[in-house]
Amino acid sequence: MRFVLGTLALASVSAQAQIQYRVELTQPQHHLATITAEFPQQKAGSFEFQLPDWRTGRYQLLPLADGIRRLEVTDADGRPLPFTKVDRSRWSVTLGDTTQVSVRYQLYANELGDRTRHIDDTHAYLDASATFVYSPELRDEPLSVFLSVPGSWRSVSGMESPAPHRFTADNYDVLVDSPIETGEHSSHSFSQDGRDYEVVFWGEGNYNQAQIIEDLEQLVAEGGKLWGGYPFQRYLFMVHATSGASGATEHLNSTVIQRPRYRFHKRKDYVDFLSLASHEFIHTWNVKAYRPQGLVPYDYQGENYTRLLWLAEGSTSYFQKQLLLSAGLISPQEFLEDLAKRIERSEAKPGAQVQSVAQASFDNWIATGGDYARNHSVNIYSEGYLASLSLDLEMIRRSDAKHNYRQLHRYLYDHHRLPQSFGEQDVLAGLKVVTGSDFSDWWQQTIDSPFQPDFDAMLTQLGLERAPQEKPRRVDLGLEIKEEKGLAKVTHVRREGAAWQGGLTTGDQLVAINGMRLLPSQWRDRLAELPLGDKVTLTLFRRDRLMELEVKPGAQQADKLKLQPVSDASDAQRRAFEAWAGVDWPFDSTGK
Questions:
Q1: CA distance 199 to 384
Q2: SS3 state of residue 382
Q3: Which residues of 419-433 are buried (b: 16+ CB within 10 A; e: fewer)?
Q4: What pLDDT, in 10s, does the model give residues 382-424?
Q5: φ and ψ at 136, to 5 degrees?
Q6: Residue whose C-alpha is closest to residue 455's, from 404, 389, 399
Q7: In 411-518, which ranges are E strands?
Q8: Which residue(s) pair with 29 in the sheet?
Q9: What are phi and psi of 445, to 5 degrees?
Q10: What whole-number distance in Å separates Cα of residue 290 and Cα of residue 186?
Q11: What percentage of the chain's residues is helix, strand, coil (to nearest 5)?
Q12: Is-contact 148 172, C-beta < 8 A?
């Protein structure tokens, strides 16, 4: 009966939706579904359809089409049509006569951590880029999606839903940016500033749903203040409590946030969750409402090149804690802890001396992680944050704290909203409009060239300083290890650090320090015991040959970096801090 009713519901909108998709969970316990895509009448000749090669929010080509098997193509009468696979994700159908085209295939969905597709016996998460094939010629046509799922399940998405388990979209681009979550959920709704919000939880975990709803209500109210309005009327938060997968992805008017199921309760873990929610919510403006040239319109079959990914992602990372601070969801101390952590990581990562954030943006499609990246590359998120910080403080300095980076983003939202886009010259023009100042030279030195921030000067501008270290300095060899088969395997050697200068490389297996056997579990304790200033002899295996190398270690602070307000902050410093953080100077005379 459920299937019959669903068919009737699907037929009732056939006049409005030219393209119809159907999802049948055939063997959910084995992560399998059957997808049917029905396309309207096509003229005799050839007809092509394809699956995207990447998903929005992740700027990397993915083997999404590998999840398709048992593909069949039929005409309006159910007769098979001859087809050929043309490349990794594209098929061509030969049509002898004008006819409707139906494409049916088995889909394997077990990529939860990629946030592309996942099906099991309790739910299905379906990102259209990894689920539904499309025809380039019909990309702008309206469509409908129907899900055949267990009766106890509920289906949600950012798309319009005229009936249970039914969704409609104006075109394929809306479908791609509106993932579907269906399954056994806990759901909560609230309204804020005349807009409707829903929060859906899948998976058991140590989260407090009431607290999350209360905090999200405070968070979403801040977004409209920053941009002066909202690009949506309804917004959906999808929260996954998982067995290990983590991360988040932004979409048109929704987001999916994944956390290990027992990583919600501790304060640090909860702030991390709120930071993800803040980051993806900010993306509703930055990227989904306005985004750089090269990403408009999306090309789903190849790389989308731009030198401004640092602004799309890095500035979103930059704003996420500011939004939490202004919403009262984190304390000023937690706000400064985040900045301290970013400074500490940057000072230990020499890649900023080699690659610019503009280069990193363009090359993100081929970027790799690991030892090489840390020594020779920068990241659009972390270094994009620092570039945003530098630009914000420069805007504040030049305008005597009258203008800031948030105003630039509001300018981009007001003047370059989709379907428009913006390029580097548009950003420079926006800076000129907002501040009255030309940033061309600054841009060349900071964005187009490798950039090493002067953090102490930045902190001084904001009335902040590094807190004194309580523990004495300790030996720094400039390398990292992990245990592998009982040995300490070198996983990272910092460029120009002590180990680098001494000739160590990744893959070396350390077995002794100064002639005494080294166990991986002893690594930190053994380093702490080494006297400063003395050379260290490391015994290691390389290519199975035993060898010794002598290293002259450096020194580093033993404590983690902490920031504090200066004891006598000037009015200019306080104004700069307030323009930067978006809140009044929060510290008393004791710095608390």
A1: 29
A2: helix
A3: eebbebebbbebbee
A4: 999 999 999 999 999 999 999 999 999 999 999 999 999 999 9
A5: -55, -35
A6: 389
A7: 464-466, 474-476, 479-484, 487-493, 509-513, 516-517
A8: none
A9: -80, -30
A10: 32
A11: 35, 30, 35
A12: no
